[in-house]
Amino acid sequence: MMTRFEELGWRDSPMGEISLRRRYDPEVRAEVYEVKLDEDFLMSSLFTVAERELSHLGLARVESAGDLEVIVGGLGLGYTALAALEDPRVRDLTVIEYSEAVIDWHERDLLPDTVGLAADERVHLACADFFAAATSADGFDPERPGRTFDAILLDIDHSPSRVLHSPHAEFYTPAGLRAMAEHLKPAGVFAIWSDDPPEPEFMTVLMEVFTAVKAKRVWFDNPYTGGRSSNTVYTAIRT
Q: What is the rounded distance in angstroms from the CA atom of residue 192 to the CA atom of residue 204?
């Protein structure tokens, strides 16, 4: 008999208790994996189209022919990282994840859709604060300070204007984005997922720092509403 609900893991963090749960949803007749931060739902295995498109759209704008070095900010359920690995040009993928618990879930292969992600020889799961690393002089690789990357793909906050933790807000300013852009190679790509429709204010901020800024709404079927829902993926290129 299928278990209706099971909490697979949880741990306290400075932002609250983060937990992974599995439940059988009779409405969609499928097992659903969900991540919560306290009582706030962060992600669901039912809605992964835009998380995958974050990688697809971001890497599509990278002009380099191969041996790409990529940063993913936020591991979550792993769909963004897994989609990045579908690009045969990706040689090195570093995932910056704040919570040790989330990394542990993947190292133990608790999520059936992303089994093997942590063991992939191209992947390095780093437990660190993405925003602190992004705005530091040393950047994302403590062993190689100042290392630059072909793409930085970010999926942590709900949106640039709805952050999970108030200190994150400083990142979404011209100063924060300029500091992060220093860790991109020339013509490197920054891409970010958002749960909200395109925000003109954030587009303006991006255009202060990057060129060729785009915002694309990614639509997907919503079994709960019977209609369509959307997320947004912003992409921009370092000059």
A: 15
Which pLDDT band holds residue 8 (cuts at 50, 70, 90)?
A: confident
Q: What is the DSSP letter of 198?
A: P
Residue 45 has φ and ψ, to the nearest 5°, of -70, -10
| Sequence-distant (≥ 6) Cβ neighbours of residue 59 within 8 angstroms | 68, 70, 84, 87, 89, 90, 151, 153, 189
pTM of the predicted model as reported, rounded to 2 decimal places: 0.94
Distance in angstroms (rounded) separating the CA atoms of residues 199 and 126: 30
What CA–CA distance (Å, rounded) separates 94 from 110?
A: 20
pLDDT digits (tens, 9 = 90+) for 106-136: 999 999 999 999 999 999 999 999 999 999 9
How far is 190 from 237, CA to CA, in rounded Å? 6
